[in-house]
Design brief:
The structure is a single chain. With 167 residues, the protein is an all-alpha fold. The chain contains four helices and no strands. The chain has a domain of 65 residues.
């Protein structure tokens, strides 16, 4: 058999009922106090917001806008929420400009390097040509012409040098 019968009810004494009522009154008072403090906080927050709005209205508009830009507050303003697409577009243009500048800088460096290499190759070509001409003497040229079977004849008339007339 269970400890209590179904017919038995646990009854509280008058002292226990009074204690429970006092605890309920304390709970209710604490809850009301918490609600009052929360209401005071929201009222003080509203007062602070009004004070900030008054301070903004007293300062020139460009100063408050500049401060909002530097603090990042401009991004959360209601009137700016429609301009996010434009901000994104401007950011993409800046990024594209940076990429173009760096790629043109890279191309300019490459062009300068290739121009130096071309200059060095031209100089080497001239030097090789001069070297080849210096190595080939008149007698070597005459020998190679005879080997080919070509007829080499000297001019019949003596060479005369024409001097300029002095004026």
């Amino acid at each position: 058999m269970s400890r209590y019968d179904d017919n038995e009810f646990l009854t509280d004494s008058a002292e226990e009922i009074r204690e429970r009522e006092q605890q309920e009154i304390i709970r209710r008072t604490v809850r009301e106090e918490i609600d009052r403090i929360a209401a005071d906080d929201t009222a003080s927050t509203d007062d602070e917001a009004e004070d900030e709005a008054e301070a903004e209205s007293n300062t020139p508009k460009w100063i408050s806008t500049l401060g909002a830009i530097f603090s990042g507050e401009i991004l959360v303003r209601e009137r700016m929420k429609g301009g996010y697409n434009y901000l994104l577009y401007i950011a993409m243009l800046y990024l594209a400009g940076i990429v173009i500048i760096f790629s043109s800088l890279h191309l300019e460096i490459t062009r300068n390097r290739l121009a130096k290499e071309v200059g060095l190759l031209r100089e080497k070509s001239w030097r090789m040509t001069e070297e080849r001409n210096a190595r080939t003497s008149h007698s070597a040229i005459v020998r190679s012409i005879k080997e080919r079977g070509l007829d080499l004849t000297d001019p019949k008339k003596p060479i005369t040098i024409v001097k300029e007339e002095e004026r």
